[in-house]
């Protein structure tokens, strides 16, 4: 039994399948969450105009406005509310699309209630993390933790919440190899197992934004172990 308490955290759930929506809504309410459940992307966007939830859960495929579009619109507003994407598709490319749109995590269907709850607990822990207000400088890389911004050679890195959290963790442990389990625990609060592609996907995103042509390589992969950020 987890010691984590929902403390009445609010969740916006957008799922077009009525049976699935009702089942998730009931389960979350029994866990102590306040749930606002809607059946499509347009209703989700309208709900966000009135109230900002602690976590957003979006189905990828919905009528009117799909989950990817909703996610992009939310992030375009500079709204960094933790967001979990649900997808019935098994292809990695579809999951990557969700992450690329700005989702913090994805959960493929069918999934167990225990896994959904674990993902939500992890997102809520990250939301309440007390961030330091310092600046980290590694050569031409500057990270402003209080502003949650990062620059390299005066070029601003446009990072999602998860990308920034990952960069921040690696920067605090510069020149040290962090293994997969430790990164999953610190960033997601949950180890998704050896078959998960979450971490590899985000490392790829971060590397493309961090290392432009002609710039020194900062992010290194240590095969079979993990990743490290090196001082240039």
Description:
With 232 residues, the protein is α/β, with parallel strands linked by helices. The protein folds into 2 domains: 10-127, Rossmann fold; 135-229, Orthogonal Bundle (Arc Repressor Mutant, subunit A). Helices cover 40% and strands 21% of the residues. It has 8 helices and 12 strands. The chain has helices at 18-30, 41-50, 67-76, 92-101, 113-127, 161-172, 180-188, 198-210, and strands at 10-14, 34-38, 55-59, 83-87, 105-108, 135-138, 141-144, 149-152, 155-156, 178-179, 219-222, 226-229. The strands form 3 sheets. It has a 5-stranded parallel beta sheet, with helices on both faces. A 4-stranded antiparallel beta sheet has the order 6-7-8-9, with helices on one face. Strand 11 (219-222) and strand 12 (226-229) form a beta hairpin. Helix 6 crosses helix 8. The longest helix is centred in the middle third of the chain and has 15 residues, at 113-127. It is globular, with a radius of gyration of 18 Å. The model is unreliable at 1-5 (pLDDT under 50).
Record keyword descriptors for this entry:
about 230 residues, alpha/beta, Rossmann fold, Arc Repressor Mutant, subunit A, 2 domains, 12 strands, disordered N terminus
CATH superfamily caption of the largest domain: Response regulator
CATH architecture of the largest domain: 3-Layer(aba) Sandwich
Quickly name the level 1 CATH class of the largest domain.
Answer: Alpha Beta
Number of helices: 8
Count of folded domains: 2
CA distance, first residue to last residue: 45 Å
Q: Are there runs of 5+ residues with pLDDT below 50, and where?
A: 1-5
Record field, number of beta strands: 12
CATH topology of the largest domain: Rossmann fold
Helix content: 25-40%
- Shape call: globular
């Amino acid at each position: 039994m987890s010691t984590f308490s929902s403390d009445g955290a609010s969740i916006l759930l957008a799922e077009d399948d009525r049976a699935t929506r009702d089942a998730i809504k009931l389960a979350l309410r029994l866990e102590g969450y306040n749930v606002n459940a809607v059946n499509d992307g347009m209703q989700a966007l309208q709900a966000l105009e009135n109230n900002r939830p602690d976590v957003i859960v979006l189905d990828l495929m919905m009528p009117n406005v799909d989950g990817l579009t909703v996610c992009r619109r939310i992030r375009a507003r500079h709204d960094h509310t933790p967001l979990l994407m649900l997808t019935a598709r098994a292809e990695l490319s579809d999951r990557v699309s969700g992450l690329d749109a700005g989702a913090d995590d994805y959960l493929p269907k069918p999934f167990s209630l225990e896994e959904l709850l674990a993902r939500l607990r992890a997102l809520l822990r990250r939301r309440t993390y007390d961030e330091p207000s310092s600046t980290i400088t590694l050569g031409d890389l500057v990270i402003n933790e209080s502003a949650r911004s990062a620059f390299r050679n005066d070029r601003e890195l446009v990072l999602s919440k998860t990308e920034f959290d990952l960069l921040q963790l690696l920067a605090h442990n510069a020149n040290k190899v962090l293994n997969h389990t430790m990164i999953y625990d610190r960033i997601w609060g949950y180890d998704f197992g050896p078959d998960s592609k979450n971490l590899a996907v985000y490392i790829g995103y971060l590397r493309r934004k961090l290392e432009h042509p002609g710039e020194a390589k900062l992010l290194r992969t240590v095969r079979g172990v993990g990743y490290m950020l090196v001082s240039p």
